[in-house]
Design a protein that fits this description.
This protein has one domain: RNA polymerase II/Efflux pump adaptor protein, barrel-sandwich hybrid domain (OB fold (Dihydrolipoamide Acetyltransferase, E2P), Beta Barrel). By secondary structure, the protein is mostly beta strands. The strands form two sheets. Strands 1-3-6-5 form a four-stranded antiparallel beta sheet, with no helix packed on it. A four-stranded mixed beta sheet has the order 2-7-8-4, with no helix packed on it.
C-alpha cells in the first residue's frame, strides 16, 4: 500500500519570461545596418526595400537610413487582397 496520500498534479506552474517582441524603431527614426527594427511572431509586418527578414521573422535593416512604414495590398493564395504593413528603410 501507499504510505503517502495522493497529492494531485501541479498544472500551470511554469512561468517563462517575456520574449521582448514588438516594434523597436518607429517611423522617422534613423537606423544603422544590421539593427533590429521589428521582432515578431509570424509575418505580421512585411520586409520592404532596405530591410531583410530573418528565420524567426525579425526585420533587420540592410542599409543606413530612416525607417518608414507603408500599407500595401498583398494578394493571398485564395486571390483575396488584404492590407499589410511594410517596413522600409530609405
Amino acid at each position: 500500500m501507499s504510505h503517502v496520500k495522493a497529492g494531485g498534479t501541479a498544472k500551470n506552474v511554469h512561468d517563462s519570461p517575456g520574449q521582448r517582441l514588438g516594434v523597436k524603431l518607429f517611423g522617422g527614426q534613423s537606423v544603422k545596418t544590421g539593427q533590429v527594427i521589428v521582432r515578431q511572431v509570424g509575418l505580421t509586418k512585411r520586409a520592404g526595400k532596405g530591410t531583410t527578414l530573418s528565420r524567426n521573422f525579425t526585420i533587420h535593416a540592410v542599409k543606413d537610413g530612416v525607417v518608414g512604414y507603408r500599407t500595401r495590398k498583398i494578394r493571398r493564395f485564395t486571390g483575396k487582397t488584404v492590407r499589410r504593413t511594410e517596413v522600409v528603410v530609405e
